[in-house]
## 1
Amino acid sequence: MTTTIKQEHFGQTSQGEVVTRYTLTNAQGTEVSILNLGGIIQSLKTVDKNGHFADIVLGCDNVADYENQSAYLGALCGRYANRIREGQLVIDGSHYQLACNNGPNHLHGGDQGYNQRIWSVRAEHDNSEARLTLRYQSRDGEEGYPGNLDIQVTYCLNSQNELTVNYHAVTDKTTVVNLTNHSYFNLKGSGNCLEHELQLFADSFVPTNASAIPFGDIKSVAGTPMDFREPKVIGQDIDADDQQLLQARGYDHSWVVNQGDSLLKPSPLKQCAVVIEPETGRRMTVKTTQPGVQFYTGNFLDGLSGKEGNRYNKRDGFCLETQHFPDSPNQADFPSTELKPGEVYNHTTVFAFGLSS
């Protein structure tokens, strides 16, 4: 068996747009299903230590359920993933007001972000990998952002059980860009995620205020519940008496990915996280070129309609959203998220699946 791609009708949006599901399968039987709606990873099936396959991402069985939830299940987020304080941008001296769709702040692209858009798709495969290339043009002024932004996101599943996501964008006017995928993982396949063991290759994190906007400083994880430098069960400290956790109802913060030794690691890809689910033996390793990873424990899932009649509740899944830091356009000391004409936005994240030893 070689890699294959299957295409099938998934439904229609409330606006009558056709939604198609593309299922990429490799020789090992690992398969990922992706929608042209929002570039959503609708299903991801991997094997456990007993040879059984299970779907390890949260999602929906129909378009209506995706349209009726605001959890961004499996979706591409942009133009700016995460939050921008009060929806305010200043670029080249010009002020731009974005929608405030998350309390006082702008979140994941606004009222109609990329998660709700229909993307054009090109599918191709050979013996070793299957690729799905999604394209979308975000118009100048869409959701308040300046510049026509041409975006290309490629999902690639190879024979080594690696799912690579590459983000590419160019603009005709200076703008800000921060793209990510918002998949919720549960390596057990069901139940909560609190017994998963997580290691984050990050010595520091970004503290935030009560509305999840950074104060502007970077803080060491040492001596805090944010310390995942050694593998730790997600649930160990999640209910600690810590202001950062209390205001977020759990983990929902950006960790600063360690840069490593560039002489020893010439690749810009940096190991970001390793997750192990002890009961099934499933392991997921994440590498990225991005400076940060937002670790979120599904703190606001509340009876969300899921697949096969399931309801997703608080902490039933976790996200590892590789991206820039929240509110970077308003934080002078954070890495810049501006993209100028003639420049290329190019980032890669790799999710590798296997079994713990």
Note: Residues 4-355 form a domain with the Beta-galactosidase; Chain A, domain 5 fold (CATH 2.70.98.10).
## 2
Amino acid sequence: MLKVVDLRKSFNNIEVLKGISFEVKEGEIGVVLGKSGAGKTTLIRCINGLETFDSGEIIVDNIEIRNSDDMKNMRGQIGMVFQNFNLFPHMTVLENITEAPIKVLGKSRKEAEKIAIDLLRKVDLEDKKDDYPFQLSGGQQQRVAIARSCALMPKVLCFDEPTSALDKENISKIQEIIRRFKDNGMAILIISHDIAFSKEMADKIIYIKEGILVDEKDIDLN
């Protein structure tokens, strides 16, 4: 479902990604591990079109992405759940989720609300649809962010440090919800520093050190 081939990216003539290649299949969870500065965030930003890349390919469902124009054509196929959630504070939970289906997919409000309610059931927050983000806990905001990212029905869902601000109980809940979407056939890519979380969740662990893939024995995450 997601294939990254020889991906390279430089900033100010310093190569940050040095030929990264891996794949995450349909219904599989891949976790990218590595120290701060290893290139994890740059990798996920390139996959989501938030950064351009210098060379290589990103392939989603057999469609090749080589440049920003290709990425525009894939809009909605790659979902992103940000570390700080990025919910719209002036919108209710329901409005946060219906915004993209209405504006990007051209859905009617009634159709968009049906999609949103179904997603809120999947993240166990149907009763919070009329709340605003400030009325929710961090864990609940994370779950709304997941629902919002899935509203465009992406083939690939990416997470940037999904457990960084959560307590143990909320981490368990997020794990349960991520597995639900995996079981529905979505390919999931997670950037994480949490080794215990990663080893429990991952079907595949991708270790990065100084912009290259390395074997587990060659990386120290302490």
Note: The chain has a mean pLDDT of 89.
## 3
Amino acid sequence: MGRICPEIRREKVDKQNGRGWHRLLRASACTWAGLRAAWVNEAAFREEALAALVFLPLGLWLGENGVERALLAGSVLAILLVELLNSAIEAVVDRIGPERHELSGRAKDLGSAAVACAIALACLVWVCVLLL
């Protein structure tokens, strides 16, 4: 498995991100590399991203005003955000070593619980906005 944005990792700390548009372009490249890695390696992210393709436009259409649209769409994006963080935690834990350890298991379980909370939040927002 290749490294993500290896050219950035090799530079000195003071030149790591560059400035202005150059920094933005380099950061964007790393962002896309991270999204691609999540898509390729994480089934849960793929499933949630496909669901987001349905629910984001639906939320923007069903919301009656800007606040409702933001709540509906934002709650869906929150699931993707938390899933990306969970995947990052899992990758770091797996990088440390394959052996079982209580703290490694706890870290992965906490990440999974965070995703479940994000899904519950989205469900709550959708119910409150659309049904109450």
Note: Residues 66-96 form the longest helix (31 residues).
## 4
Amino acid sequence: MAVCVAVIGKDNSPKYIRCSDETAALQFHYKVHTSIDIIEEKLNTGNKMAADVRELFLGLLFSTEEHKIFGYATNTKIKFIVVLQSTNASLRDNEVRMIFRKLHSAYANAVCNPFYVPGDQIQSKGFDTAVMEIMGVS
């Protein structure tokens, strides 16, 4: 399924990045950081129109020969980025939306932990397990 999952804070600092292939982690970090600009652009154009009906799922941010990068932004400006293989053409928008819903739910559970300090890196076993499930790694 996903080859990289990232959670970016409202100040555009990475809070969590997990890649299936650790040897190509630097390449995925670059793709994640490149997509932050596209997310910011989409969020700013959305504010000019109607901020109340803003869709959380931002859709396909950009595509390369190997990967497709999708974005999602919460109401609190936390951004989720998922990198999928381009060869996985069977994934439809609804399935990608479900991936983001699971990720958002796992994120909400992780930050609701009373021992989590807001703004820190996410170091939750439950969140890690949910991300590994999204990535298809058991």
Note: The chain has a mean pLDDT of 88.
